[in-house]
Amino acid sequence: MLNEIMNDAQEMQNNIPQDTILLSVSNLCAEMQTIEADIARYEKLVSTKKEELLRVSTQQLPELLRQFGMSEIKLTDGSKVTMSKKYYAAIKEDNKEAAYDWLRENDCGHIIKEKLEIPFEKCKKGETNTEYENLKEVLDEAGVSYIEKGDIPWQTLRAFAKEQMEDSEKSEEFPKELFGVFIQDVVQIKKG
User: Which of 45, 74, 103 is the last residue of a domain?
Assistant: First the structure.
């Protein structure tokens, strides 16, 4: 019974005129291009609106409230408008040493989170890096706490998952859920 259904489905597919398939593909591609253009237009609009909001909330309204000597006002709908100060800071790389020295000299060095990074060579599969292991042992013996953190760049993880999934022997044993593998067919249109 299942074979008959499969054969019927294959026969129906073979009977569909190629023109109909090409027209369907063409229509979906046109729809995709329209959606991409809509998204680009909406993203530009959102960006423009964010700039407008920033201008109104950080320039125009504060200036108007200052002119009237106000820092707060209640609107007729019950909303409360409050002007407050927000502080931002970013130490440029060129100033980092001097800024850190100042903090230390002014008993504020505690806000600096010291970080020690030592790059180690990659090991071949199944091998361990003896320099890395020796350093860990010395730190442990000295009672120095440290953070052991490894990271896999997303591009490397993506390539690894692809390699595992495309290898028929490996794909069955590869823990897809553990690695959050998601496979999706994607169509792109490049304008010529």
Answer: 74
What is the Cα–Cα distance from 162 to 127, expressed in whole angstroms?
A: 24
Name the CA dihedral angle for 70, 71, 74, 80, rounded to a multiple of 10 degrees. Answer: 170
Same domain for 54 and 111, yes or no, is: no
- Once rounded to an integer, what is the mean pLDDT over residues 29-48? 96
* Structural domain count of the chain: 2
What are the b/e assignments for 155-184, b being 16+ CB within 10 Å?
A: eeeeeebeebeeeeeeeeebeeeeeebeee
Write the single-letter amino acid at 126. Answer: G
Q: Please write the tens of the pLDDT for every residue from 124-141.
A: 777 778 888 888 899 899
Short-list 97, 68, 90, 93, CA closest to 81: 68
Domain hosting residue 70, numbered range:
2-74
Q: Which backbone phi and psi does 72 adopt, to 5 degrees?
A: -155, 145
Cα separation of 96 and 107, whole Å? 17
107, two tokens:
């008993």
Whole-model pTM? 0.56
